[in-house]
Amino acid sequence: MSSRNLLQTNDARFTSVAETLSASDWAAPSLCSEWTNHEVLAHLVVGYSCGMGSLVAHMYRGRGFDAANTALARAYAAAGSPARLLAQLRELMHRPTGIGRYFPARLLIGDHVTHELDILYALGIEPRIPTDVLVAVLNAQVSFPNPFVPAYRNSRGLRLIATDADWFHGDGDQLVEGKAAELISVLGNRAAMLPRIRGAGAGILAARVLSRRTAG
To answer: What pTM was estimated for this model as a whole?
Structure first.
């Protein structure tokens, strides 16, 4: 399956999961910085639909991408209920507009899976994301630098093993083990998931995650 088809199939699966969440679930904090689950959902819609001009204007006002990203997610969340945002996401996943037309599908899969985990783990829900999707995300994120996800840097020099999938990366004595979804979250700087990993290299990875979160 191509990356684009895998992205669309996974987005359709995510929307069916998201539709089961309650209003209080959406209002709850996620694992993603200071965003609520509602704002995380809004961010996914932003990624597919925001125009370049709007993004540049928010970056200018907010003095950087991160501030612009946060402002846009909060603005979209304020303007649309979770039900409305899910309807937009179902439409946009087949016909992206704005900057969403240019993002590589393999990077968007990683972004969408990471944010689904931000929502579900924060609610105490164990994800049921297909193994092939999780493996595709891990392979992409540890293989080349991504300006938005620090997994490539966080994984350097470590031997990573997914305990619930046929996936490993790296070699050496600094072993880090965890479920595939847990590894995605930790490599993406989600400190709340650090207790889920183990191995001789777990302390090294934890130090990287915590230092980079402190740095911004």
So the answer is: 0.92
